[in-house]
Amino acid sequence: MIRTFLSACSVAALIASAPALAEMNFNRIASFATPTNMADGEDKNRETSAEIITATEDGMTLVYTDSPLKALGLIDLRDVTAPKPLGNIALAGEPTSVALIGKHAFVGVNTSQSYTQPSGQMKVIDITTKAELASCDIGGQPDSVAAAKDGSFIAIAVENERDEDLNDGEIPQLPAGNVVIFSVKDGVINCDSKKVVDLTGLASIAPSDPEPEFVSINELGEIVVTLQENNHLVVISKDGKVLSHFSAGQVDLEHIDVTREHALTFDQKQTGRLREPDSVKWIDNHHFITANEGDYNGGSRGWTVFNKNGTVVYESGSSFEHALIQIGHYPEKRSGKKGVEPESAEAAVFNNTPLAFIGAERASAVGVYDISNPSKPELTQLLPSGIGPEGMVAIPSRNLFITANEVDLVKEGGVRAHVMVYQYQAAAAKYPQLTSAGTNSLIGWGAISGMVADATQVGKLYAVNDSFYKIQPTIFEIDASQKPAKITQAIPVTRSGVAAQKLDMEGITLDGQGGFWIASEGRTDRVIPHALYQVNADGEIIKEVGLPAALMAVEKRFGFEGITKIGDTLWMPVQREWKDDPQHHVKLVAYNTKTHEWGAVHYPKTAPATGWTGLSEIVAHGDYVYVIERDNQIGDAAVTKKIYRIALADMQAAELGGELPVVKKELVRDLLPDLQSFKGYVQDKVEGLAIDVAGEAFVSTDNDGVDDHSGETFFWSIGKIK
Fold it and tell me: What is the DSSP string of 577-611?
């Protein structure tokens, strides 16, 4: 291996500039995949999940509900950088929520036989011995569980959820839900103390069928409960008396995308949108926050601070979603529904600063707000998460924040569910690494594939999105001299003045005339041609070049994945073997823009440990051509994420259809340590590489448009090529 780059140890320093001494930020320091908790001999290909999560008072143990496994999961957090499995505790039913008093876990367990015959238990589990200490009948299907600050009682939101397939999910659908309260003494529950708080007749929407969703308890012992489908909030005393109740209200939203169309178009609005809050959390004895996920009638894509008398103290409106759009986490496929879907809420004081945490389920990110002034929260950070943050817990005593991310893609061969650990530290924020914040207009982006550097300006790059945004092909101008790197302009790729169709842009290079050449990966089964496109500085296509018959005769789905220009010749790597390629060899295809001649060489790629390996980028610089070679594996299964170089002298194209010369490759950098340094799961799609005029190399990952993906785009410098 030639040592042309800075070491992997210096990646963090390259991601973020040195912080001021007083600067405090959360940074992810570890992650824990939930299958790790399964015992030896168990089927690790079973679906598992981390949903609602809490921590022991000393912050050394995490406890989470795992609905698919019907279990409680335990994590040893004594070493915060290396969480260790403590195993699962089997339950006779589906756990929906958990709260801790000392070492006793109070778990709501759903045992319902049907929607019309709901049932459930409050189980008490000693997390040290894993023994069941008690089981109390709840009288319905539990959702959320909360413990009083002094450990004197437990409150349960008994939802008795509706059948979403019945009458389009409209309520009322009886039996009605309620809140149940049990007294607790010295960690022992008194089943005979059960109080059932009737919530019927309070909401204006389906008053006969309240569906409590989430509960939180303040230091006064007051319980706030959300009735999500009823768009209502209720405050209850610890004795079970309704102290106040009020509608959650509605919101007008501006500059949002409400149409699922494979494009990011934030030019629409909605008026009178019901908040329909999901989770709720007290921030002091007078105020609480709600994450307004919405349901079949609403969803305001934001969060709210309420006074317990019903006054709205703060409303985020569209601002939270806009912040997520700017870091590439907008889930376009959810545009026709509820957008980023804020679902979880947490609050705690860190370093004398009260903070609110809002988890966006579909955007897979968490907003951190300074709520020193509850009427004017300030967004301080956006944290990357696993897929679908469902539960969160803050541990201020250890400067820790934890997310439980429920989505497990085992059936799709994707990433597993994760618990993520963040530390509040005197350091710069390491995420996001790429943002469009600060531009004059709201720029949405995602699914970044190929990149190229500007010919004259240091740190200036261009990138393209792929076919995920199939009706919005775009070239993004990036200022990589800033930390995080800034998207400064979005240039639509057009044909005759309208957005170009049938493109899958996987590579971009300069054309030497002020414009670009773009490589489009074809899929004949979707009528997307394998082609090259020359576009001018404004993004208008001025030339289209289809592949010659000799290539089309052997084409397969996985086509060009990158493009670079050497003199008059364009070079494009084919991602995987086509019909005439020897095993573990792919073509580097050449096209001369002057003579229009085609040719190729063979590249010897690594044999995959699992799945497949292929090429995803190509860049010419100095006396070499640099390529990214990767496998399609994710997380711990990832093996090949590497940069190789090929001497220009080897790039001598032979005629198509005959025997092709095989180039020699030389390892430049293994990217696995870089990807692991981000402390989440290893991303599979390393697809962008650009080397600027100063010789600095930048790498990026493709976030698949936040579709079955955490939404994280990693964009980082690996130093200068000598």
Answer: --TTSPTTEEEEEEEETTT--EEEEEEEPPPPSSS
